[in-house]
Structures are given as C-alpha cells and as structure tokens.
Recover the amino acids of this structure.
C-alpha cells in the first residue's frame, strides 16, 4: 500500500518586502520645519496579525512604535517632536509606518533604523 501526502497544500508562504527606507542623510537642527523617516513595505501574503513597526534611535532606543490596530507611540527621545497624527498612507496596514519629526533639535542627532515584524516571524 502506498500513501502519498501532499504537504504543499499545508505550507504557507509569507514574504514581507521592504520597498524603501527613506531617512535624510543630514538635517539642519532648529532650522527645519519637519523631517519624515519612512519605511515603506508590502505585506505580500503575510498576515497583518501582530504587525509592529518600530523605529530605533542609536541602536536600541525605541523612538517610535506602531502596533497594527492601535495608535502610534513616541519614545522618550522623540516624544516632544513626533506628530502622532501623521499618516504615511491610506492603507490600514501601512498607515503609521513613518515617523514625522516636527522642528527636530540637535538632541535627535544619531542613527535610525526601522524594524517590521508580525506573528508570522515567530
């Protein structure tokens, strides 16, 4: 007797694609109305369950966080600068992917990076 199980029907393919990351190389402190740090991505077939966008400042300090279905939050370093109402897109899965900093000061000098995760990453 031969039993064949088709595993292909049970496998799921998830691919979150970062399309672009836009971070200005330099900004003149106290002389710029605002700056936008944008991390544009496409979920492709990845479920939005547990979608979290985090912007980090100088390696590990959370500067901004958005959890899908909730309001975005600013970190301690960016709290007085972040526009939490800024929407990067009308797509509910990417609405708050970007961090808008109003009148950035010298204290924001450093390195920034975005990290995107979902429950599919577990």
């Amino acid at each position: 007797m031969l039993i064949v199980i088709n595993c292909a029907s049970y496998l799921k393919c998830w691919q979150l694609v970062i399309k672009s990351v836009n971070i200005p190389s330099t900004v003149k402190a106290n002389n710029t109305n605002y700056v936008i740090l944008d991390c544009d991505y496409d979920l492709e077939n990845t479920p939005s369950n547990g979608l979290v966008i985090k912007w980090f400042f100088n390696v590990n300090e959370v500067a901004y966080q958005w959890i899908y279905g909730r309001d975005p939050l600013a970190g301690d370093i960016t709290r007085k600068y972040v526009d939490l109402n800024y929407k990067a897109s009308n797509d509910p899965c990417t609405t708050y992917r970007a961090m808008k900093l109003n009148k950035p000061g010298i204290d924001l000098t450093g390195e920034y990076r975005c990290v995107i995760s979902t429950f599919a990453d577990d």
